[in-house]
Design goal:
Layout lengths: L3 H8 L12 E5 L2 E4 L4 E4 L2 H4 L8 H11 L14 H12 L7 E5 L2 H16 L3 E5 L8 H5 L4 H4 L9 E4 L14 E7 L12 H14 L2 E5 L23 E4 L10 E5 L1 H4 L18 H16 L6 H11 L7 E5 L2 E5 L3 H13 L2 E2 L2 E2 L2 E7 L7 H18 L1
Parallel strand pairs: 3-13, 5-6, 5-7, 7-8, 8-9
Antiparallel strand pairs: 1-2, 2-3, 4-10, 9-10, 11-12, 12-15, 14-15
Helix pairs in contact: 3-10, 4-10, 11-13, 12-13
């Protein structure tokens, strides 16, 4: 009989020729457990998903309760479904007043697709401005606004009319003009290796979009829900987007995304043509129930206010001659090393010793540090001991 690993390699589509092939049987808190019962610290939260860690009991209970009521009933937007209504209500209560209409999707990439369509429909314009080294997903539209040619050159032609500018560079803002439908930007760039912009730059970007009637789309798919030490990352910069993109931690471990705008903007999807964006499973009631529960835990347990202290501890403990710098904000950090080859050796050594981390798509010489927000000081110390051992072992 073939093993589970052999079946995975033969029957499941592969995304690289070198998958990690780690096999886990369960997960709880910040730990994942293999079939021998060995614990691994999840230092990347499933790439920004598991802000509350794994199998949070409040979230699991909310899922079970909703399963007993109903699952899928109808394509999104037709029926009044309590989980969707309550989740949107809670999100809006935490956002600025112009962000008042939530369109739930299946994923972050679909949220990007919907937002790009909405911006073009609302403004009547066709041009889009995106950023070098940006990452917004892998579907065709999202790929079109990715700022890395290596990852998208094989899939051209992509969306026309997309112009790329430099992140955190005020000189390029004059390329936003009265023909620009939208600017799509990660509030903090993720796959570029956690690049935090200057507040003055973000305010200048907001002002230029307002001046030209361009919609500002902030992609917080990785950065939201406390990861940076604020509930939403744009709060660090004293700006407000026209459209906000959410996913990953939005679902508390379940698949869901959202794009959020004013009623005035969102209403553009309702006519000429009707059904301007359609999704069958977007806003699935079980996912909305999980997301609402996760958001309630995040707020009720005051987890956001613990993030900066934990960031400080990581920075204090990860001091080593091989570490060039640590970039980021909160528990969204990048540890820069000399090369990808060194980074890969260190990551592999960490995995051998029970700590899961990885690198960034557009910055392969940097190590990702993005643990669940529930991680304790003792657990941070334990993870950093493993990383420091790997740094010393591999150089």
């Amino acid at each position: 009989m073939p093993t589970l690993r052999q079946l995975f390699l033969s029957n499941n589509a592969q995304t690289t020729n070198f998958p990690l092939l780690l096999e886990f049987e369960r997960a709880e808190g910040i730990y994942m457990y293999d079939k021998e019962g060995r614990a691994f610290i999840d230092l990347i939260s499933g790439i920004g998903v598991s802000n509350l860690g794994h199998s949070n009991p409040y979230v699991v209970n909310a899922i079970k309760e909703q399963l007993d009521k109903y699952m899928h009933l109808m394509v999104y937007g037709e029926y009044v479904q309590t989980p969707q209504v309550r989740f949107a209500e809670k999100l809006i209560s935490l956002l600025p007043s112009n962000l008042q209409s939530v369109y739930f999707t299946n994923s972050g990439a679909e949220a990007v697709e919907g937002a790009l369509k909405l911006a073009k429909r609302f403004t009547g314009r066709q041009q889009i401005v995106a950023f070098n080294n940006a990452y917004h997903g892998s579907t065709h539209g999202a790929l079109s606004v990715m700022g890395n040619e290596e990852f998208k050159q094989a899939y051209r032609p992509l969306l026309p009319g997309v112009n790329f500018i430099r992140f955190n560079n005020v000189d390029d803002l004059d390329q936003i003009n009265h023909q620009t439908a939208c600017v799509i930007v990660e509030t903090i760039q993720g796959e570029a290796g956690i690049r935090v912009p200057d507040s003055a730059y973000m305010q200048a970007l907001r002002a230029r979009c307002t001046e030209t009637g361009t919609l500002l789309i902030l992609d917080e798919i990785q950065a939201a829900f406390g990861r940076t030490g604020k509930l939403f990352a744009f709060e660090h910069f004293d700006i407000v987007p026209d459209i906000l993109l959410l996913a990953k931690a939005l679902g508390g471990g379940m698949p869901i995304g959202a794009f959020i705008a004013s009623n005035d903007i969102m209403d553009a999807l309702k006519e000429n043509p009707i059904l301007g964006h359609i999704t069958t499973f977007g806003g699935h009631p079980v996912c909305c129930s999980a997301g609402l529960a996760a958001l309630e835990v995040l707020i009720n347990e005051n987890l956001v206010n613990t993030v900066i202290e934990k960031e400080t501890l990581f920075r204090k403990l990860l001091v080593h001659p091989a570490v060039k710098t640590i970039r980021g904000k909160g528990l969204m950090l990048a540890v820069e090393l000399e090369s990808f080859e060194l980074n890969k050796r260190i990551i592999d050594r960490c995995i051998e010793n029970g700590v899961i981390t990885d690198w960034f798509l557009h910055c392969s010489n940097s190590m990702r540090i993005a643990p669940p927000l529930i991680i304790t000081a003792n657990e941070i110390e334990k993870a950093c001991e493993v990383i420091m051992e790997a740094l010393t072992y591999c150089i």
